[in-house]
Amino acid sequence: MPRCPTCQSEYAEDISYCPRDGAALLPAVLEGRYRLLSQLGAGGMGVVYLAEHLGLRKSVAVKLLRGELSREPTFARRFEQEAIAASQIGHEHIVNVTDLGRTPTGELFYVMELLEGESLGALLLRERFLPLWRAVPILTQVCRALEAAHARGIVHRDVKPQNVMLLQRQGQADFVKVVDFGISKVLQGQQASGLTEAGAILGTAHYMAPEQASGGTVDARADVYAVGVLTYEVCTGSLPFRGDNTFATMLQHLEATAEPPSRRRPDLGLPPELDALVLGALAKDPAARPTLEAFRAGLEALVPGRVPLQLTPAMATGRVPALPPAAPPAPAAPAVAEPLEPTLVSTRSLEAVHRARRGGLLVGGVGTLLLLGGVGLWAATSRGPAVEPPAVSAPAAAPAPVAAPAPAPATEPPKESAPPPATAREQLPEGERREVPPKKQPPARPRPDKPRPGKVPDKVQDLKPNPF
What we know:
Helix content: 25-40%
Strand content: 5-15%
Number of helices: 15
Strand order of the largest sheet: 1-2-3-4-6-5
Region (Disordered): 384-468
Oligomer: single chain
Pfam families: Pkinase
Shape: globular
Binding site for ATP: 63
Radius of gyration: 38 Å
EC number: 2.7.11.1
GO molecular function, one term: protein serine/threonine kinase activity
Distance between the termini: 118 Å
């Protein structure tokens, strides 16, 4: 009896999907050939099942696009493109796709080879980072897989540890398979496909090239940037850019400068050649980045004579006496937990934040210059009277009142008799008026009963009452 792998509910034989959560009921047979046995993994767009080819008695993997997405033309077309792209490349380091079809209820699926191993993301969660003798062979295999894809006019656009599978093949450890071409871009005829709408960003923020984060034109050089980020993470155990959220991370890719790997982890003794190689791949300008072939050659030159074409299980377990054990990792930012779903956002919000930040920096710079100019002008005008001959009773040198004019009266000697408050206010002139002697006796205020001739008193208090 069919059973839902999620909620474990059982249904009749004529029901293929659970009405509660939409999961395919197991066991289920697709097109009379592929029996779904168990669920291997799930993501935001689809579910991967362990299946059996009934005719060949062979274990395969079936990726099933979720029902609601299968009915969306854009997602359906992108899912089909993923299967077609992976099958057309035909490279040993790219997952092999053998079939594409639809379920009786309209869900898209494709069949691929069963990969028995773990992702590079899972390995980094456990090991945090890899020594160069192990990291370089993995990264060079990733480069070879992407080179083959680029030769077919296909850009992956989502290179990250979760899309790099590590297998055991005929006694070989760390055999790489690059998977998930779901958001790949076919350069030939891309304008006619219309899969990427204007103002949309596709990819994972931590590995996104600047032109990809800003919604610009994306080509093979975006994969070079992502491989540079991947190399940085594998060799140091941390990402070059990490913000508090997706937009903050994307802004760092647009504006920030990456710290060299050897400076990020000085305890690992990373060579300066690795710094130059990675920082070159992380260049903001795509034209300044090396090609994948040049990047791969630079990686292979890091450990000459110690990178065999075929790795052994002994190397995978770390029992290699050629290199000393790596130092324990220093406390740093937590590793990226998997899986990381690709980001699909609008560039309008990011561009607005980017323009606002650049405008704020410009306004702040102009404001700083104006402030410095005002301080300099004030200093120049305030120092002029300070060099004039001071009053007779003033001390010979008083640098403190020059920097702060307000406390200047405190430096003058006290008078013999304290003047009234009104006179004290009159004895606080500006710096340029110190040569004017203060008045000893302020003019007496006219009394109400004896007003000055020609002047009306302020208040009249002694007027006789009006007899009328």
